[in-house]
Structure formats: C-alpha cells, structure tokens
Amino acid sequence: YLKLIMAVKNLPVSPSVPPGSWFVRFYTWVLYDCIHWGLVLCIAAWQQFTTSPPILDIDNLAKRTGNVAVLTGGPRGIALGMLKRLVQLDFTIVIGARDIKDSQRRVDEFANSNPDLSCSKVTIFEMDLMSLASVRKFADNVMGNFSRIDLLLCNAAVIKTPYQVTEDGFESQFQANYLSNFLLTDLLLNRLKATAKMKGSPCQIIYSSSLIYPFGKVDFKELETSTVYTPVKAYIPTKLYQVMSMLSLEKKLLGDDAQVHCYAVHPGLVLTDMANTLPVMSIITKRLSGLFRTIQQGADTILWPAFCADYQNRGGLYMESGMSQPIAKIALDKEVQSNLFARSQELIAPVISSK
User: Fold this and answer.
1) How many C-beta neighbours within 10 Å does residue 38 have?
2) pLDDT at residue 3 is higher than 50
3) Residue 312 burial (10 A CB sphere; 0-12, 13-18, 19+)
4) What kind of fold does domain 2-352 have according to CATH?
5) Which residues cross the membrane (predicted)?
6) Does residue 46 register a pLDDT over 50?
C-alpha cells in the first residue's frame, strides 16, 4: 500500500522494504495513520479555536546583538519564521541544513523580500540528520567558528512515507527526529553552559515537539528499528523520546547547577511542507486550510520560552500556545527516562569518541 501511495503522489519509492506483513502493516496504518492521526487533528483543531498563539512583540524586546542562535533545518516553513524573528532581534544565526545551495537561495529570497532586514549575520553549514557523522561535522563547524551559543533550536524533523534505514543503521525517523538532535545537543552543550556562565543569564534549548507524544510508547526491543512500519507509527514515539530526554537533560543540568534550560514546544497546527509528505495530510490541508495557524504564529510559539520572562529562567517544560502544559503520565516514568537517556548515549558514543 505504501508503494501504491507513493506512485499516486509521484514520489520516489524507497528501496528499503518495510518490515511486517502487508496485512499487519495495513492494520497498523489504519490504527495509527488514520485513527490516531485523525484524533490528534481533532484535538489540535479544537485548540485552534480555544487558545490563541503567542505573538513576539519585537519592538519591545531588547536586541540580542552578539548572541548566537543555532537553528536546525533549512530556512523554510516554521524555520523561516524563526529566522525572521532572530534577524529582527539582531542574532548571529547558524543554520544546519542538508542542502546549502537551496538554503542560501531561500535566505537570499527572504532578504530580497525584507529589504529592511539584514541577513549578513546568517551562516549556513551542511548537516544531514540522516548521518550522525554529518551532525558531528556540523557541530565541529559551529564550535570552531563561534565562541558562544545562546540558543539552540532543534526544529528539523521528517514524516517520511517510505521506509528507510540510515547509513548508521537506524530507522530514519528515529534518527532524524530524535537521535541526531540528541547528539547535536550533547556536542554543543558545554558551549551553551559556558555561554550562560559567561553572561550570567540562562541559555535555552528548544525542541519542536507535537501534542501527539502521549500516544507513543518506549519499546526498547525496537527502539532504533521497527518490526512493523507505517509513517505515523514511527513518528509518534520519536516525539515521546524527545520529551522524556528533555526532562532527563533538564534534571541533569539542574544537578550541575548549569544555567541552561530545556523545552519541548508544540507549534500548533501549522501548514508546512512536512505535513504534505503524508498523503492523508495533504488532502486535509487542501480542504481545511482555515484550521491551520500561520507559519509565523508557529515560529513565535516555538521561540516563546526563550523570550518570555515567565519561562526563560525555568525549564523542563512541555508547552502549547505559549503556556506550560501538564506532562503526560507516560513521559514521567523516571526509570524509563533514565534508561532511554542511557541507551541514547550508548548509541551516539561511537560518534562522540571519534574525536
């Protein structure tokens, strides 16, 4: 059924064969990609009408001249909205993108359409989340060229329809959405801690999350792989891993008395290119575009904890619409948090030790 969907969408079919029999995969697709995803869309749509996204009041925020923000994902969609705000606040911005030429073109287009804003402080380095070595190289470039990091924005993510295994041997969504961001955070963490100590105020690490995370589960038997694959089934647990490791990292930082805080932020239901990688979503977005928040609203929502006085000095938070939300019980299991964090460190250890 995946090949049929990809053929209809005129998209390339992955050479990797999805695990699981066609019947089990079809049943799982109905359960996760239709029922679970549909339920989440209903919840998200309800939020659109019952909550309002925060708006960054740029005119009343102090300029951050000299501050460095690291942003993952090419300047498109929500990342482009974040780029705009960071440029307005005079940040020095480092972008990690898979395609440097395309990203530079998008930055140039942004600069041309916003002549009152300067993109002279934007640097783009190559980073492919499907390769841990590429993430390591990006981190080395950042560390070698910038003496401080004030804000780390782990925004890049995928919802791939075809099943793929990365060069590192992991299921692609597990690596791109979770493990590569875990690695990048680990590689840049000491610079963030040093920056916070130097300036005497907190630095922030923000992960673009999703309200779908409570529907996930941590199964250590298939953490890095899948016994049965569908796009949404693989996507959901990566968001749970993200929230759980964020909580573990915040606890570790508090124990180290480090002034670095971590957040997982759901941007709201935003119409982006990533949504359209799922055939079901592309149909919905065309029919119900009025339900979605704008890209700028999604960007402001993600950036909010770094600039809101109520949140920038405390972390370990999951946030929606500019407000801290109770964390789902499934993410609060201390033993699973600890085991997940330890297992993730084991998986990135070969890359860390290859200095």
Assistant:
1) 12
2) no
3) middle
4) Rossmann fold (3.40.50)
5) none
6) yes
